[in-house]
């Protein structure tokens, strides 16, 4: 078993293994909150063991990531007499992690929780860093930063995922490889050792967060590709997954970077090759409008400035302020190429 231990008080140890070690539930006061699909998947293994604990099955999907779901779970927990002596244990992807992380952070002013992330995205991204939120008018608008007491990753469980959902997580891995260094960037082209890729990704995210937990500055490099991605996701015209939106967002950042920093085009070509290999399309046919640009500004809430993370080189990303009219110009150019 691989353990990513962190010395910083804000961070969480991450255990990476090829199976779920149920014996870690030494405490009897466990309240399990489990994603419906995972419950079905693990039913035969869990059936006997899970009965020992209080548990609840939650329906899956982004549409449940809202305040109503919070109310239902808070109510259920009160009814079941869940108190501070319980450890809430979450089995599911990023949606469940975000919801229950928020539930736990607010229930009786905070109750301990642990996460068993089951999607690739939740293993390498959403479970790390303590961000918990629900959608209210816009995505992740109501939330809190609070860490689980540990994260336990079973990297074999991701092979049950749908292909497109798996690739969605992979777009974040590609993002890490651009932020981190050339070694990891080239590693993911050749090697397919998923355990190594997951642990390296967890390490990169933990390291960045340990340097700027509350996102005053440096942590924002994790937003590479996300400014434009959120704009795509927020549109009501076409439904794009997060991973696809991030891919388009990253390519757009490459495009901006080649203008501002004369980025080496071979790197861009290599990245496009990988995206295509993974069946990502790299442009969207979305009609962009002033309304969409305003959405970007609102989304990031930075006094009307639009911050983009740009790529000077692999392993060297920087935050750049781009004026609204410049952005419009680049968007138009982007769709001409
Ligand atoms: N907190 C953060 O820092 C952070 C970072 C990135 C994304 N997020 C959030 O994460 C959410 C997306 O998470 P996600 O991609 O994990 O989606 P998800 O949680 O909706 O899971 C996707 C689907 O996969 C199913 N599933 C889960 N594990 C499975 C498995 N092992 N095999 C088969 N099916 C499985 C689920 O039931 C669901 O239908 C978004 O709401 C996003 O905002 C949060």
Automatic annotation (TrEMBL):
InterPro entries: Dehydroquinate_synthase, DHQ_synth_fam, DHQS/DOIS_N, DHQS_C. Residues 56-166 form the 3-dehydroquinate synthase N-terminal domain. Residues 169-301 form the 3-dehydroquinate synthase C-terminal domain. The keyword Membrane applies. Its cofactor is NAD(+); Co(2+). Gene3D superfamilies: 3.40.50.1970, Dehydroquinate synthase-like - alpha domain. The chain crosses the membrane at residues 29-46, 86-108. One of its GO terms (molecular function) is metal ion binding. Keywords: Amino-acid biosynthesis, Aromatic amino acid biosynthesis, Cobalt, Lyase, Membrane, Metal-binding, NAD, Transmembrane, Transmembrane helix. GO terms for biological process: amino acid biosynthetic process; aromatic amino acid family biosynthetic process. It comes from the Bacteria. Pfam families: DHQ_synthase (PF01761), DHQS_C (PF24621). This is 3-dehydroquinate synthase. The lineage of its organism: Bacteria, Pseudomonadati, Pseudomonadota, Gammaproteobacteria, Oceanospirillales.
